[in-house]
Amino acid sequence: MKNFIKGLIVVAVSLVIVPLIPLLFTGGNDATDENINDNALPVISDQAVLVPYSLIDTVSVYDVTVGKRINYSCEDFLVYTVMAAVSPNAEAELLKAQAVLMYTYILGRRLDESVNPTPELFGCDISTDSNKYIRILSADEVSMVFKDNADKYTDKVRKAVKSVMGEYVSYKSKPIVPAYCYSCGGITESSLTVLGTDVEYLRSVKSAYDEGFKSQATMTKDELFARVSTQTDAPVLLGDPKDWINLSSVTSTGYVSEVTFDGGEKVSGQQFAQWLNLPSARFEVTYSEEFERFNFDVSGSGHLVGMSQYGANEMAKNGFTYRKILTYFFNGVDIERSLDEDVTVVVADVAE
To answer: Of the candidates 203, 216, 240, 287, which lies 20 to 30 Å from 55 by C-alpha distance?
Structure first.
């Protein structure tokens, strides 16, 4: 399980290719892509069980820029992480679902840190290093990003957070890996497809509301050559450009598992998508010899695992509650609520 979660962190953080979520939810007047980031995910120990899961009161964040601890009330933490992950102009039920995922995230972090403390966190739950942990907006960033709407949006998100405070998604009595992407393009990918590890609640599910979420990207042969050749351990592109790229392994959903270059080098579809800044690794490619350029047709945005925010927002518009949304995208899970009691930590012996 740990190897899986660490792998998903790489997927979630390294694919910095998410489109402008607020532009699609708000019309583009209130935010920039700087407040968008896929989630870094908690490493949940298989050797620790919280009995019971206590309601988290305070979340501590280590500020790596100034070297000090910042304490947030759990409510503020959820408000500012939700606002960093999705447009506050989204439907209320999506905001609630996102808040539940953020609480699930910090509950998982608290659980793991209780038995496997991370030295560079100095006793905190996470740090401000968004390459390793989920992003949290500061109050100043909220004001800068949302300008005159900052107070209105903050109040809207806070209302959603309060309504689900303490609720988390569990599988077999443990908080899940709260994976989410912007849009799955009609069907989510399983953890088995993306990471090679099967996780029961991260199976592929259809999302009809995402089916039309497609995009295109075009680049000349010189642009593609430059992007690929500057990568670490870059493949050598030889010969005719029409033979440079071969999608050598593609799943039934269109997800590209492997790309083979004309020199025989191979790379994962995820890595290739990141190199070219494509929205996802579900794509098709054609080459125009007349115009000497590559054309990419892309479906979805993000790693395509877990909850699709775009699809969830459309589900909310059509009457789905946050609970229905979460239990649809995560197979066989429960929505539970933390108890307002002191935390008891039980360390269990788990066979390797």
So the answer is: 203
For 109-126, write each residue's pLDDT tens digit: 999 998 899 999 999 999
DSSP 335: E
Two tokens, residue 282: 């579900």
What end-to-end distance do the CA atoms of the chain give, in Å? 11
pTM of the model: 0.83
E strand spans, the chain: 48-50, 58-63, 68-73, 126-127, 167-171, 174-175, 180-181, 214-220, 245-250, 256-261, 266-268, 283-288, 293-299, 307-308, 334-337, 345-347
> Given phi > 0 = left and psi -120 to 50 = alpha, else beta, which region is 93?
alpha
Give, for 101, the enclosing helix (H) or strand (E).
helix 92-115
Q: What's the pLDDT tens digit per position in 94-111?
A: 999 999 999 999 999 999
Domain residue limits, the chain = 2-179+321-347, 214-299
